[in-house]
């Protein structure tokens, strides 16, 4: 019985390893945030998409005030993505 438990554990670990490897191999960098006053830095939370394939999210720093932005990433032909800053959080307005 102990041998069966060990075998079951080995199979479970193998499946988890294969699943983790498969998930990691599907990751793709769409955009590199520079963190300047005209860009965000350190994206946070999940992304939301619209019917056109645009992605929306937030960063915790960067932007004109250094405390983050709300951004839109739009797909371009050839696989490139363009960032559009929708909102810049303010350092003292309590919105960031």
Radius of gyration: 20 Å
Which bin fits the share of residues in helices? 25-40%
The count of helical stretches stands at 1
Low-confidence stretches: none
Share in β-strands: 25-35%
Question: Structural class given helices, strands, pairing?
Answer: alpha+beta
Residue-averaged pLDDT, rounded?
78
Give the overall form.
Answer: elongated
Q: Main β-sheet: number of strands, strand sense, barrel status?
A: 4 strands, antiparallel
Which sequence of SSEs, written as H and E, runs from N to C?
HEEEE
Summed up, the domain count is 1
Oligomer: single chain
Strand order of the largest sheet: 1-2-3-4
E-strand count: 4
Q: Whole-Å distance between the termini?
A: 57 Å
Which secondary structure elements does this structure contain, and how are they paired or packed?
Elements: H1 2-25, E1 40-49, E2 55-62, E3 69-75, E4 81-88
Antiparallel strand pairs: 1-2, 2-3, 3-4
